[in-house]
Amino acid sequence: MSIDHASSRESVRAILNDLGPGDAPPRATYRLQFNHTFTFDDAVRIVPWLARLGVSHLYASPIFTATAGSMHGYDVVDYGEINPEMGGRDAFDRLVATCHEHDLKIIVDFVPNHMGIEGGANAWWQDVLEHGPASPYESFFDIDWTPLTDELRNKVLLPVLGDQYGVVLENGELQVRHDRGAFTVWYWETPLPINPITYPMLLRPVLDRLEGELSPEDIDRLELESIITALERLPELAENPDIGGLGARYREQIVAKRRLNDLVRRSSVVRDVLERFLDDLNGTVGDPRSFDRLDALLERQSWRVAFWRVAGEEINYRRFFAINTLAAIRQEEPRVFRESHRLLMGLLAAGAIDGVRIDHPDGLWDPEGYFLDLQAEYIATQALSKRGIDPAHLHDDDHAETLDALRDAARAEVEAVAGDRQRWPLYVLAEKILEHGETLPERWAIAGTVGYEFAHAATALFVDASARQVFDRITSRFTGDTIRFPELVYRMKLQMMNEAFVSEVMVLATALNRIAEQDRRFRDFTLNNLRSALTEVMASFPVYRTYTTCADEGVEERDRRYIEEAVATARRRGRGLDPSIFDFLQDVLLLHVSREPGAVARFNRRCYFAMKFQQLSGPVMAKGLEDTAFYRHNRLVALNEVGGDPSRFGINTEEFHRQNRQRLRRWRDSMVNSSTHDTKRSEDVRARIGALSNDPVAWRAAINRWSRLNRKLKSLNDGALAPHRADEYVIYQTLVGTWPLEGIRSADRDAYVERLQEYMIKVVREAARFSNWVNPDEAYERALRDFIAGLFGFRRSGRFLSDIEGFIQDMLGPGLQYALGMQVLKLTSPGVPDIYQGTEVWDDSLVDPDNRRSVDFTRIGALAGRHDTIDDAWANRADGAVKLMVTRAILGARARYPDLFSDGDYIALDVDGADAVAFVRASETEALLAAVGIRPGGLELASVELPDRFRAMVWHDVIRDDEPIALANDGLYSFPGDESPLPVSVLLGTAT
Questions:
Q1: CA–CA separation, 681 vs 846, rounded Å?
Q2: End-of-domain residue from the set 265, 284, 312
């Protein structure tokens, strides 16, 4: 099938401009975490519940095949297969069918930035290891084949060994095995393929040993000799373009492997001699010389195994953050994009899925270009599908010409309208973390972010900002920490660059040095000074990254400001460096070049450097901020959340309204969340901890009492008591946030203690102050575990348990009030609310893997009809039914009036008589009033005056079974707080 360009453009424009009712954004989503313990068939059983709850979309974690046993799915090894551990394609199709029966659609989480490479399961990566730069998948991964270390030229460094290479080798832990014509080195469960051009090193000795076993004319011996000859010609084939080059070499090695497999299967003599040779090759423990031949073979491979500790300094493939088992892939390469999105696009074309959440776009070479490609590919496949092509065959060779024409037309169209569209054909969310004051790039072809910024704002709204100075004093006196948060982040980012990202920083510094060497004004800058300036600027960067590309317009104004701010800050901090080195670095990042001959080449070098710089600045920020500083700065840990700024102690209602208005104006279909698989504490835990800001004096007295009572539980570690008071301070906050609502004597105490222990081990390792992931301090961690266990010993710690339980009961009312208020704000604010699995009721989850535990949906379902009224549910709030009832009621309103919630105006209101936040969402014929108490007392004795346009409407109470509401003649509505202490109110008005 073929199609002309005019027809392509017409088809594309029809899809781009014809968004029908079925293409409306989600009303609300429900996130499910799939793995081998919670499969697609498990989800099928709860679809009826999700439909009754009132969401419109099931929001699935990554569904493509991941590393065996993965609990999260972000380590995808095969984009072309739905994960068999989750049930595979058949089970997924059952889930899709069941969702459609209940009028639910599906959004999937997609991971374009990186793949899992552990255990030999990634066929693309294994091919690269086998063939090196000659692999057809070499361009799929971001590998530096010409690194600074000569020994790694044309090799991939694999830091997988548990000890030094020589020790591992002579312990016999590296073993060569043969299977189906292929040779592989196994390091325990890790298979490392041997390059076929080195097979003669294995087969020539076997041929020699056959001399006494088979005659020179024996057909099997001749076949082996022929196979060896074919393998020895592989390098010659690769270097000869007249006979196919690398393609010919690749084909010939496949044929040679098949011939070898057939030979070994049919000839017991050849098989026995080969097995005896491999036994000798694999060496004898205790005889170091017996490993020489194996060592020589390994030196000829396209990979080099090394002690895992060398990863930070010498690794030469880009990773996801500093995780060696996650290799970044290059979506900027058209073939990579198409191969990795083929099945995804087929599922979209078939209507099996209806939207995509993109994981970690900041790791991509060009996020804007990626999102444009994503929309273009979707439009092209939709256009082809509308021509009657089976979605399963969209990418067949028969349709390649047509699909290419549609792609080209679609890419041109979406690029032309980027920045101007409010809605796109494909619903796409980006997991973009926005720092304070940062805005989403306008030209991204997406619906918005996944909502981290809302989660932070909704938490901070319930924190009393007036308590900031008191909390500063409490924290510094109890823990001894006095460092300001911005300074802490700066130091932690420097630490990450000096530990986890040494190799990446050196590669960048070397590239910068080459740029300097090519200009006589800058060539005297030393590599060491350039590296120092580079790390200072990156450590001072105020956002995760900029989005420079090599387009003619150069650096956009928003990015220019961030670069200039970072350089100015770095210049102040790096006073020992020549100031002109910062001027040079700023010019490079801003792509300033002279107009002299050679300017184009200089621009390209600078642009390449700038784009690599911003690919690294994101991981450095993430590791320094989220994974380290957030675990050290513990003033009020409720604020230490992704997308948050713990140095800001709470926000006021106007800031909350401002963010809502901004989202409605430009990103109205953006997701808003309060708990995710990535949050460090669930929404309810944060709310309960945030309530401590109401009474800092009581908090200070309590922790001082507890510390005195629990001093006996500590032990000496390196001359100091362990755990340190900084960690003790986190423990007490965590207890406030997670204390079982049924009381510790009724709860599963052992399970709770174990959860706290595992959580705190992660805390101290991430903080990297008293222990860490690389060199865990076992003695300190043992003291920490013992301390936590000791807290719950009724005999030794009875006084403490009674004291803290009483304190928590006093704090619990405001804490649950804030948690309920946060849910109401999420469900009524502009955007698409997401409910993370199980958070329709109270949830006490901590950071992963705790927040990925299985959910007891049977228990949740049993709560649905437990209480007759919402007031009864609030009076018995510990069971969580009140949160469920409020959630279902508001989701029901969203289902009845979807346009009101998706496009309705946003009008902030003043609340008289209480600390509260209130607003109206309004269309021409409907309005919704939402009000939430943000300080203790809820909405008692509070009132709000509605604007004139709403006074003639008929109003009903959404969460009190649509009970009619009468307004005063002046439009004043008084909340029923004097009759019911419920701290939230949601009213729906309709035109008479």
A1: 4
A2: 312
